[in-house]
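Our preliminary data section would be incomplete without showing what the modeling component actually yields. Below, a chain of 500 amino acids is followed by its predicted structure, encoded as tokens that our downstream tools consume directly.
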Amino acid sequence: MKVNVFSMVSLLGLFLMISACSKRNNDRSSATGWKYNDPEYGGFEKVDYAGQPTGPNLVLIEGGTFTMGLTQEDVTYEWNNIPRRVTVSSFYMDETEVSNINYREYVFWLGRVFKSYPDVARKALPDTLVWREELAYNEPFVETYFRFPSYDEYPVVGVSWLQAKDYCKWRTDRVNEMILIEKGIFNPNPDQVDAENFDTKSYLAGQYQGNVRKNLPDITTGGERSVRFEDGILLPEYRLPTEAEWEYAALALKGKQSVNGDELYTDKRFFPWDGNTARYKRRDKYMGNIMANFKKAGGDYMGMAGKLNDHSHIPGPVRTFWPNDFGLYNMAGNVSEWVEDVFRPLTATTLRDVENHDLNPFRGNEFKELVLDESGVPVEKDSLGMLRYQMVTDSAVTERENYNKGGVKDFRDDDSESVEYAYGKYSLISNKSRVIKGGSWSDRLFWLSPGSRRFKDEDKSDRNIGFRCAMTRTGGPEGNEDAGGLEFKRKMPKQKRSFK
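Predicted structure:
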């Protein structure tokens, strides 16, 4: 018994000694030995960062390798998504499509804040006329689908790619503003008007002060300071997912990994669920039920009265059916979704393309830089409160080895190995063509495969196209269980469709 007590005391002493050494090491620079967070040593700050918090409605998608491309026979004979092995970095993605109530909140905010610029809110409105048809009576949807509370939790449609991008920017700022309010740094300020509204980048550049409650302590001066990017308090931007991210998240192949923990997928997937059909296969009371909202056959959108199969003749609520193995709802059916990429028929044209662009593949980069004054400080923000950016000129990157153009949407389109896309002459494809993923409520089963892809001009919209947001994951790819900060996970229970 004495030996055990002595061992325990020894282990405790060793633990305390290691902890003290570890603390001392963390308090000092491993390069210079100078102390962090000490005004006597200059006041250089090192934050105790626990990891990136999870933003509202987001789910962590742990990255990895997968075979991107068609998983079924190419029945359209377009060969526009040739299978190839790629790796996707970890990222976050919305559990659901953006709903009507989410988007109405956005339009309301624009109208409330930009009082001098009413066109901003009008420009953001969905095109409700997408419901009209010459030989169909859909006029009630023109009036009700976006605004009537019956459709609050249905996905917003009639939104162009450009409008979806603007929504992502707005959502970033509202989430970060709420973080500062919850941290006790800001007071809520519903009286923001025009340029004096919270914009994340303008705030970090010192061009927005806000209704400050209590700023962070400034170690160097002993006073207070505003939040910096290096503090890790504010989240990265909400954005549209890339095509590779969307396809990877839709397949959710983590549910098909070997039980032995090997780097092995036991089976492929044609859809976000198991099997090669859209019917539930497990032998229980749900066996044979439809797994997604899509068009079964000509004229059959939801089955027969008394035995409706997908319960939706148009888009259904954003939390319907079972989520896939990443916890994402409606990654097949309901509405197709905008992604970030510019569309080209061939996603990889040569072996060199595959080898050099197999980590986070993406087409559509436009490299931008802040507009700076003569002293290197960002020029005054614009009339809507945003910092001013400009395209990187080709001449500015002539000496670089990793890229040599500011805009590379049409990368290799004009060389001898590629096709020239002359809009209206050879094709309907241009630099405005954006990729659409996932089938919709009005599509047949083929389009529900995550590998299928179509395109539409970025300034157009449709009644069967919506979107969801994504966010880059910073730090380790496996995430963190306790982010040590504000957790935004919704408290409402997940509503899985109860088939009847």
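The first strand starts at residue 58 and ends at 61. The helical segments are 2-27, 100-113, 118-124, 139-144, 161-182, 200-204, 243-251, 351-356. Preliminary results of this kind motivate Aim 1 of the renewal.
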